Amino acid sequence: MKQICKHCKEDFEIYTRDEEYYKNMGVPVVEKCPQCRFQLLLSYRNERTLYQRSCVMCKQPTLSMYSEDKPYTIYCRECWWSDKWDPLSYGREIDWKRPFFDQWAELRQEVPRIAMLNDSDSVNSEYTNHVYRLKNCYVVSDACDNEDSLFCNGIYFVKDCVDCAYVTDHSELCYETMFSEQCYNIRYSRDCHSCRDSSFLIDCVGVTNSFMCVGLRNKSFCFKNQELSEAEYNKKMQEYQLSSRSKVEDYKKEFAEFAVMVLRKYFHGSNNEDSDGDYIRNNKNVHHCFQTRTSENCSYCFGIYDAKECYDNMVWGEQVEKIYMGQAVGGQAYRLLFCNVVWHGQENYYGDNCLNGAQFVFGCISLKKQKYCILNKQYSEKDFLVLKDKLIQHMEQTGEWGNYFPIKYSLFNYNESHANEFFPLCKEEAKAKGWQWQDSLPGTVGKETIHKIPDDIADVNNSIIKEIVCCSNCKKNFKYVEAEFNFYKKLNIPLPDKCPSCRHQVRSREFPSFKLFNRQCMCEITEHNHDDKCPIEFKTTYNPNKPEIVYCEACYKKEIY
Fold first, then answer.
1. Residue 201: strand pairing partners
2. CA-closest candidate to residue 365, choices 340, 346, 396
3. Of 323, 306, 507, which is closest to residue 314 (Cα–Cα)?
4. Grouped pLDDT means (10 residues each) for the chain, 561 residues
5. pLDDT at residue 450, rounded to an integer
């Protein structure tokens, strides 16, 4: 059935499978479209806008997601995970005369929050956020089980990678690479699998020692999709100076002009059954999902893996089931509804910042292993179940039940949040929609000690790590760290002249939208078993107003293989 979005006023479809899911979960049918729900969830997520603060408990300086003007009690990682404080000491009775969200928001201002979301076991990885099980990582977010990586987001099981996004599955020595897996020593690439020792690749599998190639399979020594002998390839590569920053920028433009003319499959992924979305792999019955792996019966999800029966679940997963409207929830979790950052929980409703297995709780903040709590006050199992049902009825009367936390209670200003990467807005647009805006983002200017960065890495020594540099884009200051410099020198990569934040912004422009377009295959090759234009229709993130040549899977395979 058709529904008009309560937020953006656009039409959207509610399918029979959606209605069945909402009924089984005991929640009302959604009132907002998938894009607006996604935007709201991500406005509660800040990965990269970090501030210097002091821990309220130990008084030591710490890096935090929360600026000084945020009204929250902030603990450093060590203090938050310690036994020196009790989240139940902040518990309060339910006020049946007031809306639930207002009571929850007041509690949230008092209960301590962890400064940055990193687990207690990561090693030498303090400057990381939304991470789990890291070793020797720096300025990394949305990451799990990585080593020796810097300035990355969305990485899992990788080592020695720099300036990458959504690179996974034992990739190593990758630079400026996106949406790739099991790759070694590739740079300036995206959408690659099992490639190595190559630069400027898109949609390649099993490709080695190649340059500026798109859509190749199991090839070596290729230049712009032409297969050469090893000697011819090496001679051709002598024309390209990959140690020069200015030359690399020219090569990026050259590659973009070549790549846009090569056909694309309408989605990225493989081994899916009855599924649609983009960057999906090994799924069954997932719909309108993005960056979703090894999951089943899920819809409207982003960045999840190993999940079952989840709707509107954003980032993580890992043996979870029946997650509905969650942001950063996962880790052997079951039945979490309307939660923000809940790890290893069970039967959580409107939980927030509960990182260690809270069970049967409602509207609680920063719990760990506690059970049967509402607004951080603990009850007997019997009393909890009675109060839970009564509170749901109360929220139905106030119109709150079935909705995620409101925009006005977002933990972050819009331009601090992850939402701004997928749905960029100016200050006026964000405030008109109800979000707040941060006018004083962190950073310093005018402190640079060097005014010209050498163009070629061959002309740089490690004394550069002592210098303060000015970003060529935003003009804020930054420094090269030793591990970063060693990586560039080892791989003969020129020093970037943009700060890590601006480099990330460049990558984020390449992220696919959370929107699917209905399109028809563009193939007109009659040898592909169709007359004139292929009649196959599909849902794709490729915007019909963009120049890419998009094929259905059957036509794509016939042309590529």
1. 213
2. 340
3. 323
4. 93 96 97 96 96 96 94 94 96 98 97 90 89 93 95 96 95 97 97 97 97 97 97 97 98 95 92 96 97 97 96 95 96 96 96 95 97 98 98 98 96 96 94 95 95 96 96 97 97 97 92 89 90 93 92 92 81
5. 95
Enumerate long-range contacts of 12-16, CB under 8 Å, 24 or more apart. Answer: 15/287
CA 345 from centre of chain: 21
Nearest to 129 by CA among 41, 46, 40: 46
Q: At 278, is the secondary structure helix, strand, or coil?
A: strand
Strand partners, 202: 190, 214
pLDDT of residue 132: 85
The mean pLDDT value of the chain amounts to 95
DSSP codes of every residue in 46-75:
-SS--EEEE-TTT--EEEESS-TTS-S-EE
Amino acid (one-letter) located at 30:
V
Place of tokens 């089984």: 24
Give dist(CA 319, CA 306) in Å, integer. 5
pTM comes to 0.93
Largest Cα–Cα separation, the chain: 80
Instruction: State pLDDT tens for residues 17-28.
Output: 999 999 999 999
Give the model's pLDDT for residue 262.
Answer: 87
| Contact indicator for 3, 11 with CB cutoff of 8 Å | yes
Collapsing DSSP to helix, strand or coil, 14 comes out as coil
- How does DSSP classify residue 138? B
Place of tokens 């020219």: 250
Assess contact for 195 and 204: CB atoms under 8 A: yes
- CA–CA separation, 129 vs 111, rounded Å? 20
Strands 11-13 and 2-4: antiparallel
Tokens 């450093």 correspond to 76
- What's the rounded Cα separation, in Å, for the pair 177 and 483? 18
Locate 467 and state its tokens: 């210098």
What per-residue confidence (pLDDT) applies to 513?
Answer: 80
CA distance linking residue 550 with residue 521, whole number of Å: 6
Q: What is the pLDDT of residue 532?
A: 87
Q: Could you identify the residue written with the tokens 């420094």?
A: 479
- Beta-bridged to residue 150, according to DSSP, are 138, 162
CA distance 242 to 176: 13
What does the pLDDT look like over 219-241, one tens digit per residue? 999 999 999 999 999 999 999 99
**Domain definitions of the chain by residue range:** 2-31, 157-265, 457-508, 517-560
Tell me the DSSP string of 192-234.
EES-EEEEEEEEEES-BS-EEEES-BS-BSEETTEE--HHHHH
How far is 114 from 78, CA to CA, in rounded Å? 9
